[in-house]
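hiii, so i know i said id send this last week but things got crazy w the move. better late than never?? heres the sequnce for the chain we talked about at the cafe, plus the structure i predicted for it. fair warning i was half asleep when i ran it
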Amino acid sequence: MKRVMNIFLIATAIGFVTSATAQQQKAANFSLKSANGKSFELGKYKGKVVIVNFWATWCGPCRKEIPDFIEVYKKYKNKGLVIIGIALDTAGWSAVTPFIQESKINYPVVLGDEQVVENYGGVEAIPTTFIVDKNGYIADQQIGVMSLKELETKLIPLLKTPRGKI
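okay and structure toks below
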C-alpha cells in the first residue's frame, strides 16, 4: 500500500509540474522607441534572456535598483542578457533623457504607453520587473525593488539554459 501511495504522490507531482509548465505565460510583444528613435521590439530577442523593467524617474525604489541593473547588464550583456527599461513618466523624454544621462544607464530605455502597461497586466505599482526566458515566456515577475543578488539568482540559471530546453 505504501508503494502505491508513493507512486500516486510521484504521479501527482509530475502532473503539477506538467500543469505549471503548460500554464507558462508568453510575454506580450511590444515595439517602443528610445530617445534617439531606435525601435526595440521584444520579439526580436528570442534566444536571449530579457529583463523588462517598468519604472519612472520620480520613483524612489526605481532609482534605488537602477545601479544594480546597470551592473548586471555590464556583467551579462555578452552572455545573452538584454535589459529594456520602460519609463512611465508622463513628462516623457524631457524627464527621462536627463535622468538616463545623469545615472549613466547603459541599457536601452523606451517610453511606455497604455497598451504595453495593459499587456503586462495593468502594472499597478513600480518598479515592476518581468524576466523573459530565451523562448519568450515570463519566467519571473517582481513588484518592488530587485537587488543585485536577486537578479543574479534569477538570471544565471536562465542564461545557462539552452534555448528550447526551458
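btw The two ends are 35 Å apart (CA to CA). thought thatd interest u
miss u guys!!
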